[in-house]
Amino acid sequence: VQLVESGGGLVQPGGSLRLSCAASGFTFSMYIMSWYRQAPEKERELVARISSGGGTTNYADSVKGRFTISRDNAKNTVYLQMNALKPEDTAVYYCNLPQRGYWGQGTQVTVSS
Question: What are the Cα distances from residue 83, in Å, to 44, 71, 111?
Answer without folding.
Answer: 21, 17, 11
